[in-house]
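B., you asked whether I could sanity-check this one before it goes into the benchmark set. Here's the sequence:
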Amino acid sequence: MQNHVCELRVMTPHAIFHFDADVPFGQIPQKLQEHHGITVPISSAQAITLRHADAVLQAEQLACEIPTLGASSCLIVEMDGSYIPIVTTAPPKGREEPPQDRRKTRTLGWIEARLGLCRPAEQENLRFGATLGTPDQAGDQLLDCAIRCGLGQQTYVHGLGDDAPWISMQVSGCFGDPGRYRH
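And here's what the prediction gave me:
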């Protein structure tokens, strides 16, 4: 019985987030009772969801100030880009014309996804950042990853990537010295 209670405690916040996406706060306790056999007050469902939303919001805010002291003496950072297909469709026509099968108006395009990762040299835990935005936005993502991995003003940064100019510019722009970039 003890294991079952622990399992419910772990499952409950996840279930609340899941139901909160589908129903208002007032209906969450009924859904939890129906699907999982547990009772949670509306106020608890609301508090858990708002706490989770706040954590998501905090995670989305990028760190951009390099601390004086860092937790890591050496970080390994890496960036790369990859083109991914994007499908667009023609906008719906006005109300006067009959509905159109938008699958027949689709167009295939491409956009570059820019990815970055960072890890302390002495650990294997990775932190990732990604954007479909500009190289500068990718650099902001990489800097955030590095700060969250323990970057300090004296941290040595070893950058890796291919020969794309935007990558070496972002690594040197974000980290400068001390560090080096290899392709």
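One thing to flag: Residues 50 and 56 are 10 Å apart (CA to CA). Otherwise nothing jumped out at me.
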